[in-house]
Write a structure and sequence with these properties.
The chain crosses the membrane at residues 15-33. This protein is α+β, with helices and mostly antiparallel strands. The protein contains four helices and seven strands; from the N terminus they run ααβββαββββα. The protein has helices at 12-32, 53-63, 121-128, 174-186, and strands at residues 82-91, 97-105, 111-117, 136-140, 143-148, 156-160, 165-170. The longest helix has 21 residues, at 12-32. The radius of gyration is 24 Å and the shape is elongated. The termini are far apart.
Length: 193
């Protein structure tokens, strides 16, 4: 007959010896599945999906009830902006409306979101901003951007263009926000037909 300690006498060493086989099994499975790699360099950026932002926004201009703009962003190195995604959504309730969103990877490798909508500034801030009250503003060309920011979160800039509200949000630095807000401010609405 083998001796087994009462549970009240188990300590952290017993816990470690119990978990060690499970950890080893997980590492073996991850290695077999090639889902785990160790690198001293750290993570590397994967391939950016191919997304035709011009076709997507042209289609949105035909089907949505508000003007859609296609910002002219550099598409060659070193200042290359790469479109990588697009989506549609709707904000329901007071001040709500339709949303046309496209995503870009900035020259620094950060994701930036551009949302165009007929929803109110307040509804956009409620859905996307880290705080509900603007913490400042930025003037870019003819457009004033309300800045919604707090430490530790991605800032959001929202501007009312009169016939459409524009939101920019992302992990980019000041140069990325400046480039995207300036480009969308200079863009003319796409034709509706």
């Amino acid at each position: 007959m083998s001796y087994q300690k009462p549970r009240s006498q188990n300590d952290y060493k017993d816990l470690i010896w119990s978990l060690l086989p499970l950890v080893l099994i997980c590492l073996v499975i991850a290695g077999i599945a090639s889902q785990c790699s160790f690198s001293a360099k750290g993570p590397t950026q994967g391939q950016i999906p191919n997304f035709d932002v011009k076709s997507a926004l042209t289609d949105d201009a035909r089907h949505l009830s508000f003007p859609i703009r296609l910002p002219a962003l550099p598409d060659s190195a070193p200042d290359k902006w790469t479109p990588n995604s697009g989506s549609h959504d709707t904000i329901t309730g007071t001040g709500g409306g339709d949303l046309s969103t496209v995503g870009y990877i900035s020259p620094e490798g950060t994701y930036m979101q551009l949302t165009q909508s007929n929803a109110s500034v307040e509804a956009l801030a409620k859905k996307y901003a880290p705080v509900k009250v603007a913490s400042g503003s930025e003037q870019r060309g003819d457009h004033k951007w309300s800045v919604f920011a707090e430490p530790g979160s991605e800032p959001a800039w929202i501007s009312d263009f009169g016939d459409v509200r524009i939101l920019i949000k992302g992990a980019g630095n000041g140069a990325a926000f400046n480039a995207l807000s300036t480009a969308v401010g200079q863009a003319q609405p796409l034709p509706r037909s």
